[in-house]
Amino acid sequence: MTVATVMYKLCPRYFRAVPLKSEKLYCSNDRETLLERCPYCASRVRTPYARFCVNCGLRLGHGPLE
Questions:
Q1: CA distance 15 to 7
Q2: Whole-number Å distance between alpha carbons of 30 and 41
C-alpha cells in the first residue's frame, strides 16, 4: 500500500495552508503570495502546520509563531 504525500502552499504571514493542487496564488487573509517551497533551500512544504523547513530548518515565513 502506497501512502500519498500531500504538498501545500503556505501563507508566510499567517501560516494558512492550502493543498498544492489548489489554484489559489494568494492568501485570502492578507493577499501575501503563497509559498510552494522553502525560500532558502527550495524544499516543498509537506505539512499544513509547517513553521520551519523540514530540510534546512529555517523559518518559512515572517508572521507570528503562536
A1: 14
A2: 25
Give the global pTM: 0.83
Which is nearest to 60 in space by CA: 5, 24, 9, 7? Answer: 9
* Domain ranges, residue 57: 1-66
By the 8 A CB rule, do 36 and 24 touch? no
pLDDT per position as a tens digit, 20-54 = 999 999 999 999 999 999 999 999 999 999 999 99
Residue 16 or residue 2, greater confidence: 16
In residues, how long is the chain? 66
pLDDT of residue 64: 74
Domain count, the chain: 1
Q: Which residue has the cell 525560500?
A: 39
